[in-house]
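task queued by scheduler; priority normal; single chain, no ligands, no partner chains; default sampling; output format set to structure tokens
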Amino acid sequence: VASRTLSTTGTDYLPPGTELEYFYSIRDADGNVLRTSPVTFTYTDERFKWETTRIGPLTLYWHDQPAARVESVIQLVAESLDRVESLLGMELGKPVKGFIYNSFMEAEPALPKESKILSQQNVFQGFAFSSQGVFVGVGLEEGLIVHEMAHLFLKQAVGSHVGSLPAWFNEGLSSYVEPGPPRSFIGSRDEVSSTL
């Protein structure tokens, strides 16, 4: 039996939802090498029993929420997808994932480590990780979900042609596509415009 412990915090931080691939390369005494086929799995936060919902290209992970609340949020997010597609001039097809925690306390171990003051004041409600196609957020709110999805889809739209988008544009577009009135939290953090 072989095992490997993978660090997912600090400089090795990985957000929940990251796809990991592994294989074994086994060499015998004669020098023959057997390489197994690669296996891909999704790294998740095993503290919770996650339920999933598909909304277009988004797979939303959530837990311990009333079905009526989830259904209401899903409907509003689905309506916002058309607006995002229209603004970006593209069909949203590449899959993304979103993990929603119910409070900052339960999300804290799964979030990237910020400065002590930012962490204590809960400045960021969401984090988008474009290279993994994943966002992590606090609170089952349609505005948060659409905002973080917009970060991921904007990066898909510009691809590798643009290294780092200006923060004002990245945050501005993501805020613009949110349904309803502006949210009351301070902001979100996205690796497209900031280094984590």
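post-processing summary
- Strands lie at 19-22, 25-27, 33-35, 39-42, 51-55, 58-62, 96-101, 124-129, 134-138, 187-190.
- Residues 84 and 149 are 9 Å apart (CA to CA).
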